[in-house]
Amino acid sequence: MRRSQIPLSLSIAPSAAVPGNLSEAVAASLSDGGGRSAAAAAWIAGCGGVWYSLSLIVPSALFVGFLASLARRSFSKLYHGKSYIMIAYYCLLWLVSLLNLSWCALQAWQCTPGKEFGWNLLSLCTTTGMLFLEISLIAFLLQGNDASGVEALTRTFLVSGVIVAVDILLKIIYIFGFGVPLFIDNSEESNRVKWGLWIVHKLVLTVVYGLILSMYHTKWREKLPARPAFYQYIIVMFSLNALALFACMLVGNGVGFGFWLYNLTTICYHGFYLPLLYIIFLADFFQEDDLHLENVYYSEMKDAGFFDADWD
């Protein structure tokens, strides 16, 4: 099944270009006098078209801009809050957000000759960072409502690190050892080994989220946080991974619609997962009322004798 058979209206699916087409298009534009504007247009279009690239770049750039706009206030909150867990996740969120923005902006690398190694390396770092956030959150949730402090953070990161290390090791073996193009989606023919691996990957995540979702209807419900936001997060991630699993199965069986659906899930994941994580797990911490600062000011004023007249 060739991607050229996909209707043009479904423009978020990557085109059926071979790896050299992008660089050839850029060279042709430059030779015709298009200059930098033509090169920039080809870079933005990437391998999947302008709308696909913009659907990835715009949400990622806006979220990084959002984090930057609140950076000063967030650092103040972290300093006064002294929560090791929040500090660790905030730093990880910044790192992964920058990696994800780079991954979204450099989509043209996957169909540019000579950039395959750089694209695979960037994709490995980005997906590993996002997967680490996912797994560490799950590991943290399964520790119960009382999980806090350095001990819980160490235990969470240890479990997550082991799982992610196995995942990235397998990906390195398949990409650099067996030459399986896990992160390159610009070939005309679908690679059954590649999509088989993605099916297993999405199946595992779907099963994990499904099991956690089922815990809300069992006696182990008390082990999970009581906030409805956690439940909503699990529903969203279960639905997204189930949809991605279905898309990978379609592509693996040569169904052209699967490419469109898979790229839709890619946009949802890379464009909106990090904002979702921030809203559900970090926003309350950073946006809470500054009562602790007011209490500090009140205590200092009281110690200085400003309120002694009230007792006279």
TrEMBL record:
The chain crosses the membrane at residues 51-71, 83-109, 121-144, 156-184, 196-218, 230-253, 259-283. The keyword Calcium does not apply. InterPro entries: TPRA1/CAND2/CAND8 (IPR018781). The keyword Ribonucleoprotein does not apply. It is a multi-pass membrane protein. One of its GO terms (cellular component) is plasma membrane. One of its GO terms (molecular function) is G protein-coupled receptor activity. Its main location: membrane. It is found in: Membrane. Pfam families: Tmemb_40. Keywords: Membrane, Transmembrane, Transmembrane helix. It comes from the Eukaryota. Belongs to the UPF0359 family. This is Transmembrane protein adipocyte-associated 1.
